[in-house]
Write a structure and sequence with these properties.
Strand order of the largest sheet: 6-10-11-16-15-14-13-12
Number of strands: 16
Distance between the termini: 35 Å
CATH class of the largest domain: Alpha Beta
Bound molecules: 4-amino-1,4-dioxobutan-2-aminium adenosine-5'-monophosphate, magnesium ion
Number of helices: 14
Helix content: 25-40%
CATH architecture of the largest domain: 2-Layer Sandwich
Structural class: alpha+beta
CATH topology of the largest domain: BirA Bifunctional Protein, domain 2
């Protein structure tokens, strides 16, 4: 058969069409076999009538099982009884690959769907989510490219193991101890000293033993790094980026419908976002009945309390220096804090971005590291960081950056219950297959 149309195009164009897809449902009634066929754009009913097709086509329709791959050609008709209002009256029909009895039927347990993830990804809902994921990756790159950024590619195997190497996956690197990266920030910093505005967009690995709806052991991490940016300017960029993602997603109406996303929710995501200092956030929490005190980190419950009535994300800036990493500079206006911000998604979806200015002065950075070592009782292996410290020795400049967890953003924008559905093959504490 000659040239193909997608199912959504077929429904628009009419007349003679040929489609390629997989059998989604099948029934037979009065000498007609009705196949609902899916492709990445949707589903359509194909009616194969014994008298209207040749013997080979009829036999193909008879043989076709659920999830068999098929090619069908015929005339497009409006038909109110068909699932999408259209039907193809087949003149030709071919099975490409027959499917054995499909292991997923209706009403399966979550565990089975995860075990059969490689097949469950064909469901209409997962197909729509994976389309959304691809769009969001595309929009993210498009936005940053339009803002004058270069994409850079850091190594994923590293010796610079965060602060202590805790929460990192250890790798035996030809007999040496190495780690899977938990953030590409340090490498992005190195590259912004040549390319000025860069982003890396690769996975990060976290060996946290968290069993929550928002933790993955492997997630896709967008990490922009910009010279001569302070954190305020960085927050503006984050606001623009997030709003750009929401605005562009609105164009994909059929995808939003398939996932069940309320477009009105997305329309509200426009700059500016609320900006609340850590100090203010503590008093807001106290007003809402929480016992949190200055110096405490926030947990899931606090995040929920703070954001449950919000419609847009909200920045919480300038956190206590004890609970933030060594590379964040002391805030001269309140030396108990560092210059940074977390972006909290509304409605308790949790932190989607963490960002800060970077301590760019060599001596100050050494002091920060010594302070963190003292407070946390840890010892940095400076051999692994000397290259990164070097950046402060050869023409350093102020710079800032942030890290955005793509699956957190997808979970929030699509209002998914669990982060595992934001990624095709989730890696979680209790799962790394398929
Ligand atoms: O807040 P985090 O740990 O910050 C960093 O790694 C910085 N080095 C980023 C930077 O400034 N370049 O992580 C950043 C973001 C979080 O806000 C969250 O969205 C996501 O990464 N994230 C996770 N997403 C899924 N599963 C996990 N276990 C995650 N841990 C962090
Ligand atoms: Mg964080």
């Amino acid at each position: 058969m000659a040239s193909y149309t997608s199912i959504s195009e077929a429904a628009k164009e009419g007349s003679q069409v040929i489609i390629r897809g997989w059998v989604h449902r099948k029934r037979e009634s009065g000498g007609i076999i009705f196949l609902v066929v899916r492709d990445r754009t949707g589903i359509i009913q194909v009616a194969v009538k014994k008298d209207s097709v040749d013997a080979a086509s009829w036999s193909a329709a008879q043989q076709a099982t659920i999830e068999s791959s098929v090619i069908a050609g015929g005339t497009l008709n409006l038909d109110k009884r068909a699932p999408t209002g259209y039907e193809i009256k087949a003149s030709k029909m071919e099975v490409v690959g027959i499917a054995e009895p499909f292991p997923i039927t209706e009403y399966q347990s979550t565990e089975l769907l995860l075990d059969k993830r490689h097949l469950w990804l064909r469901s209409q809902r997962m197909t729509a989510i994976m389309r959304a994921r691809s769009y969001l990756f595309r929009y993210t790159r498009r936005f940053l490219d339009s803002q004058g950024f270069y994409e850079v590619t850091p190594p994923l195997i590293t010796k610079a193991g965060g602060e202590t190497g805790a929460d990192m996956f250890e790798v035996d690197y030809f007999g040496q101890k190495a780690y899977l990266t938990e953030s590409s920030q340090l490498y992005a910093e190195a590259m912004c000293f040549s390319l000025e505005k860069v982003y890396s967009f690769v996975p990060s690995y976290r060996a946290e033993k968290s069993r929550t709806v928002k933790h993955l052991a492997e997630y896709w991490h967008l990490e922009p790094e910009m010279i001569y940016y302070d954190n305020s300017k960085s927050m503006k960029l984050q606001e623009k980026l997030i709003s750009y993602l929401a605005r562009n997603l609105l164009k994909e109406e059929d995808m939003l419908k398939a996932v069940g996303v309320d477009a009105e929710r997305l329309k509200k995501i426009r700059p500016p976002f609320k900006k609340v200092s850590y100090e203010k956030a503590i008093s807001l929490l106290n007003e809402k009945g929480s016992k949190k005190q200055w110096g405490d980190d926030f947990g899931v419950e606090d995040e929920k309390l703070l954001t449950q009535d919000e419609e847009k994300p909200m920045f919480i800036y300038n956190w206590p220096k004890e609970i933030k990493p060594f590379y964040m500079p002391i805030n001269p206006k309140d030396e108990r804090t560092v210059i940074c911000s977390d972006l909290q998604a509304p409605a308790g979806h949790g932190e989607i971005i963490g960002g800060s200015e970077r301590e760019w002065r060599y001596d100050e950075l050494k002091k920060r590291i010594a302070y963190v070592e003292q407070v946390k009782g840890v010892k940095f292996n400076m051999d692994n960081y000397s290259w990164w410290m070097d950046l402060r020795r050869y023409g350093s400049v102020p710079h800032a950056g942030f890290g955005m967890g793509m699956e957190r953003v997808i979970k929030w924008l699509l209002n998914l219950d669990h982060i595992r559905d934001a990624i095709p093959f989730p890696r979680m504490i209790n799962r790394m297959e398929p």
